[in-house]
Write a structure and sequence with these properties.
Its EC number is 3.1.3.89. One of its GO terms (cellular component) is cytoplasm. Keywords: Coiled coil, Hydrolase, Metal-binding. It catalyses: a 2'-deoxyribonucleoside 5'-phosphate + H2O = a 2'-deoxyribonucleoside + phosphate. By secondary structure, the protein is mainly α. It has a single domain, classed as Hypothetical protein af1432 (Orthogonal Bundle). It contains 10 helices and no strands. Helix 4 crosses helix 8, helix 7 crosses helix 8 and helix 8 runs parallel beside helix 10. The longest helix has 23 residues. The relative contact order is 0.14.
Length: 199
């Protein structure tokens, strides 16, 4: 148990790489991201009319980045190169980290990826909402170049979780206000090699 706890503690020290690339000083950790995702998922669940298994929701939210303990947090621009095998690598890392300690989390992580249950859609909507909300906070504080995240806010998919969509609409508006007409320099996304399109 202590070995698992010690590995998971690494997430408190592992920064979210996308924010570093955006020039955010002292950005949130992966652990911060998971905690806020759980808080957001809990709040959203209180607004739903249908029954929700909160145990599943909180476990999914708190453990959804467990594989990053060994793989680290990869930025979105790595996606064309690693997306094909990233999910399987994270699944295997999660199995090894949680083996004999919290293996009952593993099927919940699979359920989250499949997005077939209200709990899975709720956590996925909460995770993406956490990202654009963090972008809004950083933009408000003038920390880094957050203009890239205007696109994330515009593309936000609430997966049928209406309270998440309502909050995202406000976030999108506020983010736009904080960024103003600041243009986005799409640095690091050009593709010259012949790679299969994974987007």
């Amino acid at each position: 148990m202590l070995e698992c706890m010690a590995e998971l503690h690494t997430l408190t020290k592992l920064p979210r790489i996308g924010w570093i690339m955006a020039g955010v000083p002292e950005p949130e950790s992966v652990s911060d991201h998971c905690f806020e995702t759980a808080i957001i998922a809990y709040i959203l669940a209180q607004q739903l009319d249908e029954p929700v298994d909160m145990g599943k929701v909180l476990a999914m939210a708190l453990f959804h980045e467990v594989g990053e303990v060994r793989l680290t947090d990869l930025p979105r621009r790595s996606s064309p190169y690693v997306k094909e095998f990233k999910r399987e690598a994270e699944t295997q890392a999660s199995r090894d980290i949680l083996h004999g300690v919290a293996e009952n989390v593993l099927p919940l992580l699979q359920e989250m990826h499949e997005l077939k249950t209200v709990e899975a859609r709720l956590v996925e909507a909460a995770e993406e909402l956490q990202i654009i909300t963090a972008a809004m906070y950083y933009a408000k504080e003038n920390r880094g170049d957050i203009s890239e995240y205007r696109r994330d806010a515009a593309k936000y998919d609430a997966l049928g979780i209406e309270p998440a969509r309502a909050v995202a609409d406000v976030v999108k508006k506020r983010l736009g206000e904080y960024l103003g007409d600041r243009p986005y320099w799409e640095l690091g996304y050009s593709r010259n090699a012949t790679l299969p399109d994974t987007e």
